[in-house]
Amino acid sequence: MRSTFTKWLFIVYVLGSGTLYSMVILLLFPFVGRAGRYWLAKQWCRALVAVMRWLPGVSCSIEGLEHLPEGPAILLCRHESTWETLAFLALFPRRISFVFKEELLRIPFFGWVLRGLDMVSLNRGSARQAHQAVTQESAEKLAKGDVIVIFPEGTRVPHDAPLRMTSGGVRLACATGVPAVPVVLNAGKVWPAKGWPSGRGQIRVVVGPAFSPRDLSQQELGRAVHEWMKDELLRL
To answer: Which residues contact 123 (CB under 8 A, 6 or more apart)?
Structure first.
């Protein structure tokens, strides 16, 4: 009974605070630049991570940040829940830009804020045109100092699901010449792919070594990233 109440209290907090904070951010957007908009969004994400620790009892940790290159990078990340799309802004010290599906921009408030954050939107039309558009947008964000986050499986998956990577993330790294950094997590154990957290738990994020497309072919890069992610997921 208590866990159900806590779960719904957390849902109300996320949706309520998200809507209110989005309204505040949207009002301030005309008066702040790109960096200021990101900072405002980051504060809500930090508050959410803090609330998660005591409301549903979900803590988190991140390991391997020392593997991030000082320059541009592309994170190829496992996607297990909504959690990572909310918490990553709070956990990563560098500015990140998600590659997300364009339909999200049409969601009231959330989508409007997302548009103002100037990340990378993916139109799921022609595969070739989509790759070209994402490559161009990503190159622009990388030139500004962003770290690109892409989910190579394309959608949320349960934690115990086999790793099935598409080639888009590796192709993006090769097209931009930027190191690919694999990232795994166990968020799906605590916050399911479909649903909300229903109990206490700890989410671990592990950042892997950087693989350079300048040293490896596309096939070798894809194999190296896949093998590292597969082995590390077994340890989570």
So the answer is: 102, 129, 130, 133
In the chain, at which residue ranges do the beta strands (DSSP E only) sit?
A: 58-63, 73-77, 96-101, 120-122, 147-150, 180-185, 201-207
- Please choose, from the candidates 79, 78, 86, the residue with its C-alpha nearest in 3D space to the C-alpha of residue 56: 86
Q: Measured between alpha carbons, how far is 9 from 12 in angstroms, rounded to an integer?
A: 5
Amino acid, res. 188: G
Q: To the nearest whole number, what is the mean pLDDT of the chain? A: 89
Q: What is the pLDDT of residues 50-109, one digit of tens each?
A: 999 988 889 999 999 999 998 899 999 999 999 999 999 999 999 999 988 878 778 887
List the chain residues with pLDDT less than 50.
none
Residues recorded for the chain: 236
Contact predicate 198/3, CB 8 Å: yes
Joined tokens for residue 58 = 């979900």
The CATH number of the domain covering residues in 2-235: 3.40.1130
Residue 20 CB contacts under 8 Å (≥ 6 apart), including other chains: none
Residue 10: CB partners within 8 Å, gap ≥ 6?
51, 52, 55, 56, 196, 197
Task: Determine the 3-state secondary structure of 81 from DSSP.
Answer: coil
Domain boundaries, the chain: 2-235
Give the residue from 45, 4, 53 showing the smallest Cα distance to 21.
45
DSSP state of 191: S
